Amino acid sequence: MTINGDGLYLVAGLALLLGAVLPRLLRRYAVSAPIAFLGAGLLLGFAVDHHRLSPIAEPGLTKHLAELTILVALMGVGLAIDRPIGWRRWTVTWRLLLVAMPACIAAIAGVGWLLGLAPATALLLGAVLAPTDPVLASDVQVQGPTTGEGAEPEEDDEVRFALTSEAGLNDGLAFPFVYAAVFAATKGAVGGWAFEWFAWDLVGRTVIGVAVGVGVGWLLGKMTFDAPSRTFRLADAREPVLALAMTLGVYGLAQVLHGYGFVAVFVAALTLRAVERSHDFHAELHGFVEQLEHILTWGILLLLGVAITAGLLAPLTWAGAALGSLLVLVIRPVTAWISLARTPMRRSERWVTAAFGVRGVGSVFYLAYAGAGFRTDLPWLWATVGFTVVLSVVVHGVAATPLMRMLEDRRS
Predict the structure, then answer these.
(1) How far apart are CA 376 and CA 366, in angstroms?
(2) Phi, psi at residue 81, to the nearest 5°?
(3) For the chain, which residues make up each domain, given as ranges?
(4) Residue 348 buriedness (CB in 10 A; 0-12 / 13-18 / 19+)
(5) Contact between 225 and 275 (Cβ < 8 Å)
(6) Which of 43, 157, 216, 277 has the fewest CB atoms within 10 Å around its CB?
(7) DSSP assignment string, 111-125
(8) Which CATH architecture best describes the domain 5-411?
(9) Looking at beta carbons, which pairs linking 143-149 to residues 24 or more positions away fall under 8 Å?
């Protein structure tokens, strides 16, 4: 039986109801909600016209849905972080971004090249799989802002902070490496484009993204909490739609100015917190964004499951499966473990932080964004990325609850 357009409303309603029940139902078990939604999508694929829902057939829809999901998640994690930004306070974050992430990209690209991929395709795969996910890693991230009178920034859980702050920034910082892969495929020898890439795509656009995030976040923060007129003081009016307005506005402005919008949105959320850190309106903003994020996440996981039923993984080769498995089980844990050497983290905290490099919606977005330039390898790339995301969802979803409980027991 194939569900028609009207029947999709029934499916959507049931999916939302399932999303409301699953987190409570699975709280005591080693099965995360993303695993359940992915499984539901696999089953749903037998009942809907899945050929129209393939990311290869609908790259535009895939890109925009993944893009919106990431944006909302970035605003959420930015609002959730209590710790003020700084070089020493964020040492673990800078290590993961500046050491572990480039090392992951280089390792995946190197192994892919040894397995017979063209250099540009190998680099694209490394860049696409580089960002950890702010969407699917909620079980191992900070749970929300600490607000209220006398609230102090949360400093205890270094693991949750490291994974949250890393995911908030590396979704945007993967962009330069994706561009490098596209340039390698279209512009030829590295010497012809390396300087332009470094000066503009790596440095210039990142600086624009940070500047837009700081500027707009500060202006909106002052308006929201300190505006002379109550009309513009949105914290008094309790208008949580500010979070969505800021997400879309900051992203749009950064993109118009040719900066990195993902970076701008995360930085804007951090800046809004910094303007008035303890106000309980932050909790309302975070709650609003979190609900929207859950709805978008459920939808994209269902669609991924449908695409797998439609044959997304059919072109998968042993090389693609090996690359995905190496990333999740070896490359990410080892590179992150090395990058976190000589930090205040305990040994067990380093291992858990290194292990939980969740791959997900960010990889889907980047492949939909850049895949048009790699048409020959596109089915294989989607199969490899899809396999890696599914593997990450299952492995990290099963391991999250027991490992985080283990860390909490050791601390107490």
Answers:
(1) 17
(2) -75, 125
(3) 5-411
(4) middle
(5) yes
(6) 43
(7) HHHHTT--HHHHHHH
(8) Up-down Bundle (1.20)
(9) 143/80, 144/80, 144/283, 144/286, 144/287, 144/290, 145/79, 145/80, 145/81, 145/82, 145/273, 145/282, 145/283, 145/286, 146/82, 147/278, 147/279, 147/280, 147/281, 147/282, 147/283, 148/278, 148/280, 149/278
CA 23 – CA 21 distance, rounded (Å): 6
Q: How confident is the model at residue 154 (pLDDT cuts 50, 70, 90)?
A: very low
* Spatial distance between the Cα atoms of 159 and 82, rounded to a whole number of angstroms: 14
Q: Which two tokens stand for residue 215?
A: 């500027």
Hunting for tokens 């499951």 — which residue is that? 305
pLDDT > 60? residue 155: no
Question: Where do we find the tokens 């409303």?
Answer: 9
pLDDT for the residue 81: 92
Residues contacting 333, CB < 8 A, separation 6+? 351, 354, 355, 357
- Three-state secondary structure of 128-153: HCCCCCCCCCHHHCCCCCCCCCCCCC
Query: Residue-wise over 156-191: b if at least 16 C-beta within 10 A, else e?
Result: ebbbbbbbbbbbbbbbbbbbbbbbbbbbbbeeeeee
Instruction: Give the Cα separation of 309 and 391 in Å (integer).
Output: 16
Express each pLDDT in 47-96 by its tens digit. Answer: 766 666 778 888 888 999 999 999 999 999 999 998 998 889 999 999 99
Would you place residue 316 in the very low, low, confident or very high pLDDT band (cuts 50, 70, 90)?
Answer: very high
- Identity at 199, one-letter amino acid code: A
pLDDT in tens, 369-409: 998 889 899 999 999 999 999 999 989 888 887 888 888 88
Nearby residues of 366 by Cβ (< 8 Å), 6 or more positions away: 127, 128, 131, 174, 175, 178
Cα separations (Å) of 311 from 42, 379, 382?
Answer: 11, 10, 11
- Give pTM, 2 decimals: 0.91
pLDDT at 190 over 50: yes
The predicted structure's pLDDT at residue 9: 64
- Convert the pLDDT of each residue in 227-262 to its tens digit: 777 777 778 878 888 899 999 999 999 999 999 999
Q: pLDDT class for 26, splitting at 50, 70, 90?
A: low
